[in-house]
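Need residues for this backbone.
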């Protein structure tokens, strides 16, 4: 019984660790590869097809994305079941299951494989640095 309880707690922690917090998802995520078992030549074609794909989750819970050449925007929400629901400007919703997440990479499960997305760090770091520097400059102007 004690082993079962320990295993249950471990699995609960592992599942919640995949989800992350909303702030962990904020930023621009770029396509890196499609994780599926394909011959190298087919995988190269798939990677080329999706090479410009991105999704950017913003702090105000809006998003913008480019998928297969189409740019769209709308709102997003992080769900308790390790998924993100995006709703475009027309009101169409899509639930994306997250099967892997570590803050730097995210795998969106497509059922037959997954999109591996990598988070851009430059914008986030610049925003933090700018906010930090901006505060220092404001303080300097007070003197």
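Answer:
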């Amino acid at each position: 019984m004690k082993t079962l309880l320990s295993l249950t707690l471990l699995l609960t922690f592992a599942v919640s660790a995949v989800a992350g917090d909303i702030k962990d998802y904020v930023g621009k995520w770029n396509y890196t590869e499609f994780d599926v078992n394909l011959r190298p030549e087919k995988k190269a074609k798939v990677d080329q097809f999706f090479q410009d794909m991105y999704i950017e989750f913003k702090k105000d819970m809006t998003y913008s994305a480019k998928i297969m050449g189409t740019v769209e925007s709308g709102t997003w929400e992080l769900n308790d079941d390790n998924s993100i629901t995006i709703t475009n400007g027309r009101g169409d919703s899509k639930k994306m299951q997250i099967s892997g997440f570590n803050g730097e990479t995210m795998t969106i499960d497509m059922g037959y494989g997954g999109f591996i997305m990598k988070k851009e760090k430059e914008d986030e770091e610049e925003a933090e640095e700018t906010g930090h520097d901006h505060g220092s400059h404001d303080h300097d102007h007070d003197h």
